[in-house]
Design goal:
The protein is an alpha/beta fold. The protein has one domain: Alpha/Beta hydrolase fold, catalytic domain (Rossmann fold, 3-Layer(aba) Sandwich), CATH 3.40.50.1820. Helices cover about 35% and strands about 15% of the residues. It has an eight-stranded mixed beta sheet with strand order 1-2-4-3-5-6-7-8, with helices on both faces. Strand 5, helix 3 and strand 6 form a beta-alpha-beta unit. Helix 5 crosses helix 6. The longest helix is centred in the first third of the chain and has 14 residues. It starts with 6 loop residues before the first strand and ends in an 8-residue tail after the last helix.
């Protein structure tokens, strides 16, 4: 019988420890889910049993700096090249040659980079919210794609990515209020999407101007938990992990734009992706706005077998609209005949 229970595992190499959650038969086709900021493997709790029921071996690691995976104390330890190596070691430990890779937020460039630099390890690649060849190319490139109708350059020089500039310029000030109360921070961040913000600047554009996420407050304010995104018990797990580890690691992912861009530009493989690729845009994701902006242009030029779909959700779509996400992922997998291509 297919194992639908989510189980917990740890893989140790000489250089890194990866904790991961998994479900499904160990000999099933492999699908690996990579999370973003400020999440952990639990973010994929709705996807793992769904794909396990379909016969997949579904795996979601805690990325470095998160949960029970290794924590590091230098910004440079969180560059994409190191993180991709973590995932290649995990893949080998699972005794698999390749996998379907699915990433969200900062987990998306991890999946895209595996497809870009190690196409032989990739059956297909899917991303939630972050198009190909954007975040991998660094902050300056992302800024070049900003919709200036929404973000006038004199008011928002970095557009919706102003918060990333704030991390670079004031890392300690950006991180301190998060560490002061991780639970409040997560409760404020994990919100469902709404049509109300359409066509207006994202809150992320205000962070640098206001001196922090919450206008320079010592910690995030108390706001009601959004039950449509996360339960009380789930919030406990997220907040306990970040209370234990702190935000230095998660926020350090934002401190490697130059190194990440150099890694992306390495000429070892074609910049174009030939394998099946899927991009899921959030209709109400106003930070990674991919509906009316130019953010998808590089992906559409460079992905030769691209499928796109839009989910009526905000940024946290795997948690807010899991049924819709699962449906689109499954449809793409079977339309592209990806099952059986992993060996």
């Amino acid at each position: 019988m297919t194992q639908l229970t989510i189980t917990e595992h740890t893989f140790n190499s000489d250089r890194h420890k990866t904790f991961y959650r998994a479900a499904g038969p160990v000999d099933g086709p492999l699908i690996i889910f990579t999370h973003g900021w400020p999440e952990q493997s639990l973010s994929w709790r709705h996807q793992l049993p769904f794909f396990a029921a379909m016969g997949f071996r579904a795996v979601a690691p805690d990325m470095r700096g998160y949960g029970y995976s290794s924590i590091y104390h230098n910004h440079s330890d969180y560059c994409q090249q190191e993180i991709v190596f973590d995932m290649l070691e995990l893949l080998e430990s699972l005794q698999a040659q390749k996998a379907i890779w699915v990433g969200h937020d900062w987990g998306a460039p991890v999946a895209w980079n595996i497809a870009r630099h190690h196409p032989e390890k990739c059956v297909g690649v899917a991303s939630l919210c972050i198009p190909y060849a954007t975040l991998e190319q660094g902050l300056d490139f992302m800024i070049s794609l900003v919709n200036r109708d929404v973000y006038p350059i004199d008011e928002f020089p970095a557009g919706q990515w102003e918060y990333m500039r704030f991390y670079e310029e004031n890392f300690a000030d950006a991180t301190k209020p998060m560490d002061a109360n991780p639970r409040n921070m997560l409760q404020a961040m994990f919100r469902k999407g709404s049509a109300d913000g359409m066509g207006t600047p994202s809150g992320t554009a205000m962070v640098r101007r206001d001196g922090g996420w919450f206008g320079g407050l010592d910690e995030a304010p108390v706001v009601p938990r959004d039950d449509d995104v996360i339960s009380e018990a789930e919030l406990d797990i997220f907040s306990q992990a970040l209370s234990r580890n702190g935000f230095f690691g998660p926020n350090s992912w934002y401190m490697n734009h130059e190194a990440n861009a150099k890694y992306h530009q390495r000429p070892n493989n074609s910049d174009n992706l030939a394998m099946p690729a899927l991009f899921l845009a959030g209709h109400f994701d106003y930070t990674c706005e991919s509906i009316t902006s130019r953010l998808t242009e590089p992906m559409r030029q460079k992905c030769k077998n691209l499928t796109e779909a839009t989910i009526d959700s905000g940024h946290w779509m795997a948690q807010e609209k899991p049924q819709a996400v699962n449906r689109e992922l499954a449809r793409w997998i079977f339309n592209q005949n990806l099952v059986g291509q992993e060996s």
